[in-house]
Amino acid sequence: MAAIEYRAAVPSDSGAIRLCVARAYASALGAIADLPDVTSGIEQDITKHNVTVAEVDEQILGVIIFDEVSDAIMIFNLAVAPEGQGRGIARRLLEVAETTARDCSFSLLRLRTHKLMRDTRSIYRHLGWFEVAQTENSVLLEKPVARLVAEQ
To answer: Which of 16, 41, 54, 100 meets the CB 3.0–4.6 Å disulfide criterion with 89?
Structure first.
């Protein structure tokens, strides 16, 4: 099995990222009528936000899009294509955001997901996230940023 490489996205990755995101959300898009278009704005995201991809043999299998928002690092999108699932890609991409938060002295990660994405919510809870608020169709989750032992 080829190694998974993690790197910053570049503008020429936008098509492959869009495909990865579409494949990752395919079942949810078919089941959740009010799920927003999760593939729009990828080009702008690459130029405006932090975007990291997980790649195997030049195929993008995962992506995370995040940035500083107020007092936290906000994750705008995390997607892993079906063939990349179960390989620790989502966990590693979340670690990239957490490392950025720590390096920038933020103590909190945030993200929103659709309330009907129960499996996704369960995975986040398993990874140490807490559901802190819910609106009509979205759930706000937060995770405290772990401090390194040497920092404590």
So the answer is: 54
